[in-house]
Amino acid sequence: MSLRYLASRLAQGLLVLWIAFTFSFFLLYWLPGDPVITMLGAGGELQSFDPAEVARLRAEFNLDQPLPIQYLLALLAVVRLDFGTSIQAGTLVTEAIAAALPPTLALAALALGLALAVGIVIAVAATLTRRPWLRDTLAALPGLGVALPTFWVGLMLLQIFSFRLPFFPAVGTGSPAAIVLPAVTLAIPLSAIIAQVLFRSLQNAWIQPFVTTFHASGYTRLRLLLRQALPVALLPALTMGGVLFGQALAGSVVVENVFSRQGLGRLAQTSVTGQDIPLVQGIVLFAAAVFVFVNLITDLTYPLLDPRLRGARRKLETKASDTLAEAADREDAPAGASPAGSTAESASTETEGARA
């Protein structure tokens, strides 16, 4: 992989981060209300507080400056990796995010694991079955999983498995069982996306010539699919890694609020409600950075895992080296001198003419 491509991908990532920062900054600015008044709990009544204290807080968070100055100051601070202090909590934004991150990472990791397992099972079963009605039913499940609202799924799971059948805790993060229902809620739309992509990839891989060759060698359908077709079909699903992880982080906002779990999603919701501008921008930039990083890693590892891309890259490298070698030979040859091949060809032509 060339350095030019890597630099291009890094530049695209920085552009995504800048767009995310700019969008969140102006969106928060245009929200009604005053973050300082919200922090002080005045309910919008400035007369309830000392004007000097309000002015001091606004100056501390640069809220007394014109909008362009606020934007430039915030952008320069982010460039220096200084994300500021939370207006509500009074702690550093990085500390607030670091404290809320572990529960969300545990939830996202478990949900992605469940989604991958369920998505593979649905796609493999839909590919292997010989009954058209069963194949159509399994192929329709991912569409249903994507269409169901996440908050509704969470409420239904709470109603069934916490209130009517008290198998799992309804709220909180105290016990390992408390993460089961939130993870299942978050895994349903993720597994639907994986199943859709994987089912189409398996359909394409199933008609490749190598499948026919292995089938003629005596491979059973199940063995052929699991050992030959599935690894090939998983490669396109790998490109969805960034999207799936971003969806998991976005879905955690809904899931953590439905199940009253502490985490990054709940922190994002409370910071938006309280107009905690530094904290919201820190969370948005963190989510965007994770999205960019996962996509970059996916782009870098995909050619290493796909043998077709490895072969194409080797051919391009060989062709480029041959072209450079030919150019170097032409530069080293004396001016006016004919190449050895041309001289030999001319001599052969003259000999044949003399014989004639």
Total number of β-strand segments?
0
Quaternary structure type: single chain
Q: Helix tally?
A: 15
Task: Using the coordinates shown, work out and report the CATH topology of the largest domain.
Answer: MetI-like fold
Largest sheet: none
Ends distance? 56 Å
- Supply the helix-strand structural class: mainly alpha
Mean pLDDT: 78
Architecture per CATH nomenclature, i.e. the level-2 architecture of the largest domain: Orthogonal Bundle
Q: Could you tell me the radius of gyration in angstroms? A: 30 Å
Question: What's this model, at a glance?
Answer:
The protein is mostly helical.
Could you walk me through the main structural features you see in this protein, from its secondary elements to its overall organization?
- This protein is flat.
- It is mostly helical and about 350 residues long.
- The model is unreliable at about 40-45, about 335-345 and about 350-355 (pLDDT under 50).
- The chain has two domains: about 5-80, no CATH class; about 95-310, MetI-like (MetI-like fold).
- Helix 6 crosses helix 8, helix 7 (about 150-165) crosses helix 11 (about 240-260) and helix 8 (about 180-205) runs antiparallel to helix 11.
- The chain is built from 15 helices and no strands.
- It has helices at about 5-30, 35-40, 50-60, 65-80, 95-130, 130-145, 150-165, 180-205, 210-215, 220-240, 240-260, 265-275, 275-305, 305-330, 340-355.
- The longest helix has about 35 residues, at about 95-130.
- The protein starts with a helix and ends with a helix.
